[in-house]
Each structure stands twice: as C-alpha cells, then as structure tokens.
Amino acid sequence: MAERLYLGIDLGTYQSTIASSAGKMHTIETVVGKPKDPVARNMLGRDVLFGADALEKKLACNIYRPMAAGVAQDDEANLAAAKAFVTHLIESVDPEEFDEVYGVICSPSHITFTDKSNLVATLRGQVNAIMVVSEPFATGFDQDQYMGSIVVDIGAGTTDIARLYGTFPNESDEDTVLEAGDWLDVILMDLVSKKYTGAQLTKDMVRLWKEKYSYVGGDDRECMVELSVEGKKNVVDVGDIIRQGCEQLIPFVVNGVKTIIATADPEYQPQFRNNIILSGGGSMIEGVADMVADQLADIGDVRVWCVENPIESVASGALKLAGVMPDDQYTAIN
C-alpha cells in the first residue's frame, strides 16, 4: 500500500492551521502579498509573500486576505491568492515525501456550492482526496465531545454553532452568525474614533489590541496603547472600549445558541444545555464563558466552557477524523 499522509486543515479568515499525520503543525496568518511594482519586486526578491512576512512588507505589496468568511472569495485575484496560500500551507508539512495525501478541510457551517467548488479548486494538485466538515464538528471531534454537545466556534469571519449527537451534523443542526472577530474589530475602531477624535487607526492595530487585552464583565481595566493623531504620538487608555466592544458580541452568540437548543429534540435539550463548548479566537476573550452562561440562565441550568487550545483545535480534530474515516468518505480531486 502506498504511504499516505493525512492532513487536517483549518482555513480561517484571519489565520490558518495545518496538522499532519507526520507530526507537524503550523499556524500562519491567512494573508498573501504580491509586490506592487518592479521596484518592490526587486527589493523583496520574491513574487509572493505570506503571513506575517506579507504584513511586515505590506506598504510595498498588494495585500490579499483570500479566505473571507472562511471560503475563497469568488474573483480571479483572490482565487489566485487563495491557491498560492493553500499551496504554501501544505508545502510547510513536506507532502512530497509521501505517495498520496488525503485531507480533511474545515469550513464554516453553511457554505454554497460555489464556495465548495472554489475550495476544491484551491486544493487541486495539492492533495489526492478531501473531505469537508464544519469547524464546530472538527472541534467536537478533537475534544471527544461529539455526542451531546453544542460547539460554538467564534472565528474572525463568522461564528459557527452546531449541535452534535454522534454523527455528522446536517444543515438543520448548524447555524452561522455573521457577527464575529472581524465585526468586532469594526466596532472597536468606531468606539476608539468616537472617544479619541482624529485618531489614525487600522484594523490590524485594533486587532492587536483586542488580542492582547480583550475581556468582558467586571470593572473597566486600564489598557494603555499608542496611537497617532495627525502624526503626533498619543498614549491612551482603551480598556473601557475593549470591554464595551467585546460585550456587544455576546448577545449574538447567546441568541445563536438558544436557537440551536430550541430546535433540538426536546429529550436531548438538557444534555445540550449542560455541554456548551466555546472555541475559536473569540473564546480567548477573558470572561466570555461566564458571561455567555449568565445570559443563557433564562433557559435553565447551563454549563459553558472553553477549549484549552482554540487556535489548533479545529485542525487537530480534522486530522484525528482523517485517520479514522474510510476512503469512501473522501472525494478524489486529481
């Protein structure tokens, strides 16, 4: 039998993670940079840059974030960037050492036929066969919590919610909420701009503040950051803004969970209420599990908890699934 490499791939809006059966795991920001002109190409010495390297040189590059909402954007430039990024991601785990490569790819809970076709196109030539599963299901599989749980993946592009009961969830078992990390970045930018008139901001700046300081509940904390106003350095406190912005996300998560529970088999609803799992980058907001639980209290006793490693859990679950699925569950894409 040919030697086979299994991959678990989490293609995210903000960052992507790949795990291989050879024991390799890599996470990289889902960013592609292409030099703006021949001068930039000569200075950079490359035709394409990826991840943090692309962001570091972004003024000399046209920057693409090709996986908006977790799927390849449906235009020529972004599809080309997505293909280049996926190729780079897979090459990072040395697939050429194996005779064939099978991958389990994770996507948001609801994607269109066009989205699936674009996803296959980005992987063609890189893997021999794929299986596509939702991000919440991969997390539940990673945590051995796919029999009687609600998994909420709070990502950058979307918040995906699924009820799991020992089989692949169907469309009615899952929901996608558009309010997620990218939405929160816009909210935070607006709040900062209103408090500090004339502040010069980018989404990347605000995202870094969010990742460092995010919290909900309790009293306002001091979170000092540096920003410019008309080119002049200012050091300001954004602690109250961080809390206010993050707390605006919670009701969307709570309402999504309530809908998924309310439409479940009533005999299993108590089990679902007592095993609500938060994952994705948004689960790293300090205090988020407690606040979600507090706002769910009106539906009965609930238990809400966060996975320990939300950045790698989806890819780890996908890899774990890849190794146990029979070949007839995969789709050949050669």
Could you characterize what this model shows?
- The chain is of the alpha+beta class and 334 residues long.
- The chain folds into four domains: 4-27 and 69-139 and 313-332, Nucleotidyltransferase, domain 5, CATH 3.30.420.40; 31-64, no CATH class; 144-178 and 252-311, 2-Layer Sandwich (Nucleotidyltransferase, domain 5), CATH 3.30.420; 181-244, ATPase, nucleotide binding domain (Nucleotidyltransferase, domain 5).
- It has eleven helices and 17 strands.
- Strands 3-2-1-7-8-17 form a six-stranded mixed β-sheet. The chain has a five-stranded mixed β-sheet with strand order 11-10-9-15-16, sandwiched between helices. Strands 5-4-6 form a three-stranded antiparallel β-sheet.
- A hairpin with an 8-residue loop joins strand 10 (159-165) and strand 11.
- Helix 3 (76-91) crosses helix 4 (113-123) and helix 5 (135-142) packs across helix 11 (310-322).
- It is flat.
- It starts with a strand and ends with a strand.
- 44% of the residues are buried.
- The mean pLDDT is 92.
Brief summary of the model shown:
The protein is an alpha+beta fold.
Q: Poorly predicted ranges (pLDDT <50, ≥5 residues)? A: none
Number of helices: 11
CATH superfamily membership of the largest domain: ATPase, nucleotide binding domain
How many domains comprise the coordinates? Answer: 4
Residue-averaged pLDDT: 92
Which class do the helix and strand fractions yield? alpha+beta
Strand order of the largest sheet: 3-2-1-7-8-17
User: What's the CATH first level of the largest domain?
Assistant: Alpha Beta
- Percent helix range: 25-40%
The end-to-end distance, rounded to whole angstroms, is 19 Å
Largest sheet: 6 strands, mixed
Q: Mind telling me the C-alpha Rg?
A: 21 Å
Write the H/E string, N to C: EEEEHEHEHEHEHEEEHEHEEHHEHEHE
Query: Beta-strand percentage?
Result: 25-35%
CATH fold-level label of the largest domain: Nucleotidyltransferase, domain 5
Q: What is the 3D shape?
A: flat
CATH architecture of the largest domain: 2-Layer Sandwich
What's the total count of β strands? 17
